[in-house]
Amino acid sequence: MTDFRRVTDDISVSPQIAVADVEAAAAAGFKTIINNRPDGEDPSQPSGHEIEAAARAAGLAYFHVPVRGGPTPEQVETMGRIFAEAQHPVLAFCRSGTRSIVTWSLSQALSGGHSRDELIALGHGAGYDLSGPLGG
Q1: Are the beta carbons of 95 and 41 closer than 8 angstroms?
Q2: What is the crossing angle of helices 98-111 and 73-85, to 10°?
Q3: pTM score, whole prediction
Q4: Residues facing residue 61 across a β-bridge
Q5: 3-state secondary structure the chain
Q6: CATH code at 94?
Q7: In a domain, 136, yes or no
Q8: Which domain holds residue 24?
């Protein structure tokens, strides 16, 4: 079941997607998928390789930036670089979508892409509370 949560016109986040959801993502117009979930976190989740193969078959770019707990500065930087260079719109996912939106939001705060208050409002609109991760 797809649960793509629009954050901006350029990015949406989602809880864990299945291989079948990749085709739905392509049909919804996404051009890039960023997987923020480490492989093996749950035995029932599809592997990153399975999602990558489905993404490539659907004509989507795929990146894997696995985040355990809170994102590291390197993961934030990598997410920001991928987002800046990727074809939009982007779909980022993890177990619940929280690590994806936090990592993206921190990259946007660092780059000046959005203010802290804008990011908190965007997170709220997508169903996430970013006041803590963004220093609130």
Answers
A1: yes
A2: 80
A3: 0.95
A4: 32
A5: CCCCEECCCCEEEECCCCHHHHHHHHHCCCCEEEECCCCCCCCCCCCHHHHHHHHHHCCCEEEECCCCCCCCHHHHHHHHHHHHHCCCCEEEECCCCHHHHHHHHHHHHHHCCCCHHHHHHHHHHCCCCCCCCCCC
A6: 3.90.190.10
A7: no
A8: 5-125
Q: What is the pLDDT of residue 132?
A: 82
HSE-CB for 106 with a 13 A CA cutoff: 19
The per-residue pLDDT for 133 is 78
Q: Which residues of the chain have pLDDT under 50?
A: none
Question: Which one, of 92, 70, 96, 74, lies nearest residue 83 by Cα?
Answer: 92
- Does 9 map to a domain? yes
Q: Is residue 110 part of a domain?
A: yes
Q: How many separate domains does the chain show?
A: 1
In a domain, 106, yes or no: yes
pLDDT given for residue 85 in this prediction: 96
